[in-house]
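hiii so my PI (J.) wants the whole complex modelled not just the main chain, which honestly fair. so below is everything: two entries, each one labled with what it is. i double checked the lines twice but i was tired so who knows lol
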Amino acid sequence: MLHQPVTKASVERLDTGPVNAARVRGPLYEKRRKIFPKRAEGRFRRFKWLVMLVTLGIYYLTPWIRWDRGAHAPDQAVLVDLASRRFYFFFIEIWPQEFFFVAGLLVMAGFGLFLVTSAVGRAWCGYACPQTVWVDLFLVVERFIEGDRNARMRLDAGPWGLDKIRKRVTKHAIWLAIGAATGGAWVFYFADAPSLLASLVTLDAPPVAYSTIGILTATTYVFGGLMREQVCTYMCPWPRIQAAMLDENSLVVTYNEWRGEPRSRHAKKAAAAAEVVGDCVDCNACVAVCPMGIDIRDGQQLECITCALCIDACDGVMDKLGRERGLISYATLSDYAANTSLATSGGTAPINPTRVRDADGAFSDKVRHLNWRIIFRPRVLIYFGVWALVGLGLLIGLLARDRLELNVLHDRNPQFVVESDGSVRNGYMVKLLNMIPEQRTISLTIEGMPAATMRVAGQATGDGRSFAIGVEPDKVTPLKVFVTLPKASFAEAEEGFSIIAEDPSSDERDVYQANFNLPGAAR
Amino acid sequence: MADKHIDEISGVETTGHEWDGIRELNNPMPRWWVYSFYATVIWAVGYAIAYPSWPMLTEATKGVLGYSSRAEVSVELAAAKAAQAGNLDQIASSSVEEIIADRQLQQFAVSAGASIFKVNCAQCHGSGAAGGQGFPNLNDDEWLWGGKPEEIYQTIAHGVRHAGDGETRVSEMPPFSDMLTPEQMQQTAAYVVSLTQAPSQPHLVEQGKQVFADNCASCHGTDAKGNREMGAPNLADAIWLKGEGEQAVIAQMKTPKHGVMPAWLPRLGDEAVKQLAVFVHSLGGGE
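here's the output for the full assembly
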């Protein structure tokens, strides 16, 4: 016989069926059937633990990182300061008009998602999505208190008693505590974390902090604890979008039908009867561990978040049976189609796994395996190129951006004022933006219209063409500026003039091209 | 209701309603939906009791919480007033000059003054304070009664030719149609215009200068530069309050027009007038 005989009968068979399979779907509206995912063990499970540790660590700890910015700015590394409209991110300080940097990051996130999805499929859904991470976390709690799959099912079906009440209350209390910690971590991004924590404890934090924590506690608890897979299946738009971004060369979690079918619960007997059977022993381990309640052996499904726990489960069974791993694996649809074609003689016959095996039981060299070069196909490279280009643009923009800016608003009412000596005066609202947390002296100069003079109300006395203006750190300094043109020089007004703000010490400079208005008759 | 009827295709019970052989399936709403609905009903009843809601003949029910949007507005107004109190107290105890010297107080007064101006002054002086014929432009550097902060305050507080205010600014130009001949008025106008632009009849200027010295210099000054003590306008500058050109000058000599500005102190109070003075002073012509 081709197959190794089943040496150990230690494979646990699970009497389970997929909750979300298309063939078991009932009427349009049906009460949700609970899913009790079994704990998986293996390399993907370990990877998920790692991702959970890193992402939760980043989320909970970031607000507590300090960053010294001197006396004039907060010393929290990541801070969204809504009150003074600043966004601090380590050494970067963003003013409201520079918010396009954040928009740029969102564009990068979008292209990053295209990139990752076209390369390795729905990795976001399976590993990094907050819903996945928190559901995983909540499941850890559930398992710790109520036990693994069978114990949980027994408890759920069993009558209410002291033990059940105790377990349920403990579980929900811990879930709520996790939810509160999640909401609590969120508000720390918007205020100085240590002082906010102190005021939260002493109950004199702003109401918005408490309501934010309340809302996020509720959503975390409801989404992560109660709704779980329903969020992905019914509420989230990403599965639809991501499914559309996959192609035949993207990695998807695949049941390799061409070697698994026909599945048999009694491989030994079948082998004895000289029947051809595949590697799948129908143990349902893949179904039992699935947090989405599907049977991956039904093929590609909307619900599948490609978390690969079924791969871990199946690999464990294959190890016990002494067969090669990878009955369920990450594979591209093109590889899968090629291998299926091989196993079905080009689709003319039912699957026969003997067609993919050589006489020694090993896979024939006609079987296609994952070729990593496929990851770097043009589509992925283009996504990567665009992603990198946006990132590079943002980086250059960030390094080259001005920390001194000049905004000028020409007075509209009145547009000009005739002075007693016949000269004409125009008023301008000049705003000097000193975007660094340091005191500076900015020189404000007019260029052009050589006969014109400037006056800065309240700052400097007398008329001139250049003034040194002291500006406060990280603030906008508004100035009322009057520019006067003598009657004899009205012709100069045709040219207009420039208002220039300059920091002599850093050579930063911003120029505003200004118009000068005259009474209609003078033009 | 008729006997229980089960729809064959869907296996769902029908409500027993039938129209032309079409039966209505009895698919109840999801429970959470129904409970949300009940919750809104309970909420509505509580709301109707707690807040003003039921319209009666003359007014609505008061609600047990005693809420009223008018009371809420007055609370908000009181809070806004309280927030400004510090600045207003300082303004009340400072002179206009002191307010201008304090940068923070000056900015507060300018923005407050700007809104007071738009409500009370824009009708005559224009929303940009640029005035018009007969209504002085407050942006320029020509001041009939002086452009120093205290002088501006005085003008606003007591008005110009405002009957009933003892300290009001008063000036009056006599009508010259009886005292001067039409020729003399022509000559005077030619002289006055010649001070800033080319007159239409240059040969009249010399005689006009003499007529001016005899009749007008007592108020407008020998050099025609006006006199702020008396509110006599400067005729030697480029600003023409009552219109530009010889005809306008003659018209003003024949039947002088005198603008009137009300005294604002009794209406607006000291703080508002001070803020107005600071605002007007900040327009660019303040001295």
